[in-house]
Write a structure and sequence with these properties.
Blueprint lengths: L7 H13 L5 H12 L5 H13 L3 E8 L7 E7 L1 H20 L8
Antiparallel strand pairs: 1-2
Helix pairs in contact: 1-3, 1-4, 2-3
Length: 109
């Protein structure tokens, strides 16, 4: 695997796609970010990140079934790939190593 780095939003989107487990689509990801992180992101920003992550091979997508609630329009559903899972596993290990390396801070007022 080539050295792939993720920006903060990319990292969050990959993790949320993994959390949604085959049911991830752009508006669902936005809603999940709002609920879990109290963070609002535009539809355009999410769609750009999803395309970029798919191009990097970290996500894959396909169209779901047409639904009446969407006027017959199909959702593009995203899933994490094996490479995407490997990247977020590496990222978690790196973050944990950094946290463990920090000395316990004491604040004196």
């Amino acid at each position: 695997m080539s050295q792939t780095t993720l920006g903060e939003l990319e990292e969050i989107v990959v993790m949320i796609v993994a959390i949604l487990d085959g049911e991830a689509y752009s508006v669902g990801i936005i809603n999940e970010m709002k609920e879990r992180l109290d963070r609002e992101v535009s539809l355009g920003a999410i769609q750009t990140v999803l395309k970029r992550l798919e191009k990097k091979g970290l996500l894959k997508s396909e169209f779901g079934r047409a639904t009446n609630e969407r006027g017959g329009k199909r959702k593009r559903l995203y899933e994490i790939t094996a490479e995407g899972q490997e990247i977020i596993d590496q990222t978690r290990e790196q973050r944990n190593a950094l946290w463990e390396a920090m000395p316990r801070l004491s604040f004196q007022y």
